[in-house]
Amino acid sequence: MNRDEQRTPRLVVARALELQRAGQFDAAAALLRAALEHDPQLPEAAYRLGLLCYHLGDLAEAVALLGRAVELDPASVEAWRNLGNLCGESGALERAAECFRRLLQLRPTDIPARGNLAMLLEQAGRIDEALRELREIQRIAPAEAAGLNLLARLLGKHGQHEEQVTVTRELLRLRPGDGSARRALSRAYRLWFESVEQDRDEALRVLTEWTTFDAADPVARNLLAACSGREAPSGAAGGEGEPTR
Known about the structure:
Blueprint: H1 3-7, H2 9-21, H3 25-38, H4 43-55, H5 59-72, H6 77-90, H7 93-106, H8 111-123, H9 127-140, H10 145-157, H11 161-174, H12 179-196, H13 200-213, H14 218-228
Helix pairs in contact: 2-3, 2-4, 3-4, 4-5, 5-6, 6-7, 7-8, 8-9, 9-10, 10-11, 11-12, 12-13, 13-14
């Protein structure tokens, strides 16, 4: 590291990035290490070296360096994001969740961070908290299909089928020609029906709503005919098109 670089930390980071882009990873890492030895209070050097260590396969040092980076610069959204990702990869799920919480304090509308936090909470068995985060995504970004998909999946997995139908219908509204979304809605209605079928009135309500929304779904028509005691409409016999469960 020359004298100009010692005086200007940005030059060190810029030079290290040049070396990294040129495939000289060891040289880039050595330059960043020298910079941190010269001045241990360089958050950008710690951050870049952490990412480089991860690229070189040293997850433990990468986590340590990114932890150092956020201590030096607690306002760095990307440092919190990458630290959260790496903590999750290393199995430190609670620390990963805390990283995403800190990121969301800085940027409450960060959808990927909120989605990652929701998945970590689900892994930890904290389903209500996970659902709360996904509903917040729906509130702040109602057209965010990935968030709606996650919310619908989690609702279905944990038996909240009425809300699962509502969310999946919204997803289909956003993607009217999406066959996979329509099949997902059919599955959601089927699960909702199965969860209430012992209550005939409630089951009829679900099936009536389903057939009103999608009169062409043969599964819905057959189930409604069976539940109501009426003959199935022409062309509905045989259950063709029944969704895979």
